[in-house]
Amino acid sequence: MKKNLFIVLCFILFLPLAGFAADTEIEYPRVPSATVPTVTTTFPEYAKYLVNFSLMVSGIVALGVLVWAGFLYLTSAGNLSQMEDAKRKIIGSLLGLAIIIGSYMILYTINPQLVRWNLGPTGPEQGIYLIDSAGRRYFVNDTSEKLSYSNINKIEFVSPTSSLLAVYLYDDEDFKGTETRIVDEGSGSVVNRAVGKVESVYFLWNRPGVYLCPTTPSGSPWYICPTRPLYTVSSIPDLSQYPYGSGGTYDNEIESIQIIEPADGGYYRLVLFDQPNYTSKGACPFLLVPNSVSTPIGTVGHIDDLELTPTDPDENFNNNPAIGQNKLSSLIVTRHRPDDQISGTVTFFDKENCLPGADTIDFPIPPYTVRTARSLTSLSGENWDDRIRSFRISGTGGVVLASDPNFTGRCRYFTYKGGSDYEVDSSRCVTRLPTEICDPNDAPTCPSSVMVLPLPE
């Protein structure tokens, strides 16, 4: 009996699902506080209907069992077995009704919204819609190298500008072919642009960090790269490892740099090189976050043209000489925070292996509060031109050495962590300088300019 009743109840409750899934019209019974489902009803609306329908059926069944048990009790006429069975049914039905009413009251007491079932269709919070000429909408939530859409003439942004700056659309896979930049104008904004075929898309998210742009800024907004930038928050030893365009790379392609500064008050420091592995043959400019301005996306520092040599050192410290456009091959990126503990000394020796008894010269590592490097554009004034053979980093710092004055000629970056072509011992001594900086067969033989940088651990 109980098994058959359970089967009947399941049939009553879930029979409507068959019609919902089969996309056929069924005459659904009307239920209080719920819309009668149709073939266009969304799942949240159907869930609301099903819950209310279940409560209604449960109440009717419990009430029916109570009436039937009362009838059995009244007609038991001294039949003790029937009387006990009727009592059990009465108690069970009353308990069921109490559970249904009690559950409703508890939820309503905690929060009335819990029993109102105002379930609306939920949409995505981040991403874009690609809309074709027929009005069909295709949702894309992040960068994708392979898509297949055509006749796209509108782009609707779901993400606000606080999280998404722009998207770059391509008519070929893997970010190749014709590129179209669409700037995010705010959540819900629709941009009319007949881009046609879209087979890949790149999302330029709004994140603190360094953006290496293959083109110089033009048009509005100036703080978003006109072509797809390379985003990084860490050093890159070889830009040729990062694909760009149709078969090319970012190596020797960068014309400008934009930096979104961290919200914690810190900043990014860069050292640029025209050769891989943090070396240069022509110039070794050091860049502090320059020309920082407030924009709708945050505080942005920008170097609009890597050909320029600024005249104001407060705006662009030591970018002299300029590295030039389409020459960047590697770069050091460090992030500095207000609570960074930076201190120490770099000691230079006129003998290899930082030997005791050698002549030395000390450079203090500037603290975070000093937003510049400690540098000598020419060591001749200190009588150390062409004398450095090794050095020890006692603290949190990095060293840039150049073979010629004013950070020209051959240039190399060093840290206490070591590199591919130089060794650092347990005392943080760079035991011997690489030949591109200190070549006995070339004159001048050793560094003529030096720069000490504060670096976080």
CATH class of the largest domain: Mainly Beta
Spans of at least 5 consecutive residues with low confidence:
18-24, 311-319
Shape estimate:
elongated
Main pleated-sheet profile: 5 strands, antiparallel
User: How helical, in percent, are the residues?
Assistant: 10-25%
Give the overall pLDDT as a whole number: 77
Give the spatial strand order of the biggest sheet: 9-8-12-17-16
Number of helices: 3
Your description of this structure?
By secondary structure, this protein is an alpha+beta fold. The chain folds into 4 domains: 2-115, no CATH class; 128-205, Gamma-B Crystallin, domain 1 (Sandwich); 209-336, Sandwich (Gamma-B Crystallin, domain 1); 344-454, Sandwich (Gamma-B Crystallin, domain 1), CATH 2.60.20.10. The protein has helices at 2-22, 43-74, 80-110, and strands spanning 128-132, 137-140, 149-157, 164-172, 176-183, 190-198, 200-205, 209-213, 230-232, 243-244, 248-249, 256-260, 267-273, 279-280, 286-288, 293-295, 298-303, 330-336, 344-349, 360-364, 374-376, 390-395, 397-404, 408-415, 429-430, 449-454. The protein has a 5-stranded antiparallel beta sheet, with no helix packed on it. It has a 5-stranded antiparallel beta sheet with strand order 14-24-23-26-21, with no helix packed on it. The longest helix is centred in the N-terminal third of the chain and has 32 residues, at 43-74. It starts with a helix and ends with a strand.
